[in-house]
Each structure stands twice: as structure tokens, then as C-alpha cells.
């Protein structure tokens, strides 16, 4: 068999390359050096007070619960004493490995017993007999920001309060994030304390989408008289031409807030895209995001994204965080059919209506009592007695014989003083004859 010279040369050259590669690899590995190592890794184990972190190892994996990704759970608190028991109940039930979750709380501008309830709840949380149920590092920060806006639903959601409120909340979030995020954190999860229902697998459910920033849909239950349910968080949206035109017409420090007639943007809101039968895995790219529940890779904050405490593209806080992160080429995503439920907080109008409902209920009760009384009187006054009358009539007329109606009835008046004696009759007759007048006791039957 004959071979071409070019074929023999190619085979010989390939064999030589493979041989050289294998010899070099054996030589390098024999000296304990990896061929694919790109940089030197120092060893500071024996150097007191020195910690070394390779930040490339904390980028955030979509299966972080299997790769020991550490999550920082950030919770801003203000007058939250009533909601903390519910929050810690959810916390205990989370399925993400608790030892991989670090908790950071910021308590600010509170007038109730938020700190006391928080400390008692944390003591109970970390005293569980099952060590796997205990959480990692826990930090509590106390800092006031001079909040001048009340905590009622109407105070917090009134249009006039939105701009200042969002900027103050942004300052609080930035302060907490800058103090709490450590180099070894791969993910940062922001959650409001007043969430009523949230899946136990919330971290895994959001994390496995492998997005830089991701939020669920947020609705709230309502009383029966308010139609049961309602979209809650309207801060997660897709930018619109109307929104851009509105932003261009506003002043430099103005802040657009969604859901108010003063700022009509005609944006597509994540909340209104919900389908109860939709696939919870469906993703939707967003520009602005709400702050009830945000899962973000820690690298987003390390590279400079934050919650603007000023008007950034005419937005502040979480909505501006979404826009800023998009500008930095990070993915910002929402899940329209994956829903968590916020607590119902009655507005001032709701409270007024509820007061009216209570008064109306009392009025109806009083009216029912009056109706019941008059119903009894009506029954008595207009009772049908026709049957009773027939019985009574028979008793009254039982001795009457209708066939002998012309019989003469004899009455014996002898024992009645009103019947005059014979001598009296004669005297009366004489008197009548004398004066020609008829006596007063004239009896025509006795002439």
C-alpha cells in the first residue's frame, strides 16, 4: 500500500505535537504547578489578622444552595413590632440552608417596641435545639434618618409624601447595604417585614433563574367588600414612551411615582400581567422594580449600583435601582405569575368606609328590632278572627229559631219597681183629664 508524502508528513507532525504536549504536562505537574493556573494564589493562613478573598468565587450561582453560596438577608425596620412575629415565622420555614443565610436588620425612626420584639425573636430563633435551623451571622444596626412621614397606609402612600419618602428610604437601604455586605456574600436578598404569605422556597425559586436582579409579583388580599384581592406593588414596570415624555417635562429633582393620576405613564406593570394559571417560571424584563422582595447578586452592589437617594432619570430608590442597574448592563427581571402576598393595610378612605359599615350595621340591628316589635303589634291588631267569629256567632244565636220570628214574647214585670201600680194609673188618668196634658209617664197601652 502506498501513501502520499503530504499525508505522511501530517501524521508525523501531529504525533510530534502530542508527544511534546504530554512531556511538558508531565514535567510541570511533577513540579506541583498547574498548567492552566492564571495567577498566583497567596496563602495567608499563617499570617495573623489577614483575610484573603478572591471575589471571583462569589459571583452567585443559580444552584447556590448546593454550592454553599452565602446569602445576606437585609431587612429595614420601622415601627414593625406588630409584623415581626409573622416575619420570623416565615424565616423559620425557609428551605434554603439556614447556616448559609446571614441576617442584617436596620432599625430606624421607630416609636414602638420594634427593638424589643426583634431581640426576643432572634433569641428564640437562635436557641432552637436543631442546630441546622439556626442562621448564620446576625447584625442589628440602629440609625435614625429623621423620618417625618407617618406609618399609616395613607401617610406612606399619599402622593405628596412619595418623593421625600422614597429618597429617605433609599438612604436607609444604602446605609444598610454598605455596612452589611461582606466579601463572601454571593447574593443579597431585600425583604419587607410586612409580607403575609411567601413560599418557603422563595430564595431557590428566584435564584435558579440566574439573573442579576429578580423580583416576584406582589399582590395583597382584601376584605370581601373590596373584592378580595388586588395588585399591590406597581413599582415594577417596563418603561414607556409616555413615561419618557413625562420625565422630560419634569424638574431636575422631581420623582415619578406609579399608580397616581398626577403621573400618568401608561407603562406595562408586572402586577397587571399576572395570570393565576400562568407558568410561574415565565420571565419579564423590567426597568423599574419594587422593593417588597428583591434578590440580587452581590456583585451588582460591589460594582457600584445602589438605591439612588436623588432623582435618577426622575426616579428614586428601588425604581431608580432598576434603571441604574440596567444602565450598567445587568439583567433586571420580574416573574409575573409567581406571586407573594402583602398584608392588607386599610387606607384612610377604607377606615372611613369601615366606620360607616359599622354604623350601618348598628342601624340595621336597631331597625330590625323595631320591625320585630311592629310586626307583633300588626299581627295582634290585624289578626284574622273570622273563624273565631263563626264559632262565637253560633253560640250567640244557638237559641234563636228563625222559623218563629213573629211569636209574641211575654215579659213579667211584676217584680220590677219601674212598673206602676193600679192606683198610680188612676191618679195619672185623672190628672190628664183635668189639665188636658199628657203625663210624662204616659203609657198608651193603658187608657
Automatic annotation (TrEMBL):
GO MF: alpha-1,6-mannosyltransferase activity
Main location: endoplasmic reticulum
Keywords annotated in UniProt: Golgi apparatus, Membrane, Signal-anchor, Transmembrane, Transmembrane helix
Gene3D superfamilies the UniProt entry points to: Spore Coat Polysaccharide Biosynthesis Protein SpsA, Chain A
Bias kind Basic and acidic residues: ranges: 425-447
GO biological process: cell wall mannoprotein biosynthetic process; protein N-linked glycosylation
InterPro entries attached to this UniProt entry: Mannan_Polymerase_Subunit (IPR052086), Nucleotide-diphossugar_trans (IPR029044)
Annotated Gene Ontology cellular component terms: endoplasmic reticulum membrane; mannan polymerase complex
Pfam families with a match to the protein in the record: Anp1
Transmembrane segments: 7-28
Chain spans, region Disordered: 415-447
Compartment(s) where it occurs, according to its Swiss-Prot or TrEMBL record: Endoplasmic reticulum membrane; Golgi apparatus membrane
Membrane topology: Single-pass type II membrane protein
SUPFAM superfamilies found in the cross-reference section: Nucleotide-diphospho-sugar transferases (SSF53448)
UniProt record similarity statement: Belongs to the ANP1/MMN9/VAN1 family.
PANTHER family linked to this entry: MANNAN POLYMERASE II, MANNAN POLYMERASE II COMPLEX ANP1 SUBUNIT
Record-given protein name: Mannan polymerase II complex ANP1 subunit
Organism: Eremothecium cymbalariae (strain CBS 270.75 / DBVPG 7215 / KCTC 17166 / NRRL Y-17582)
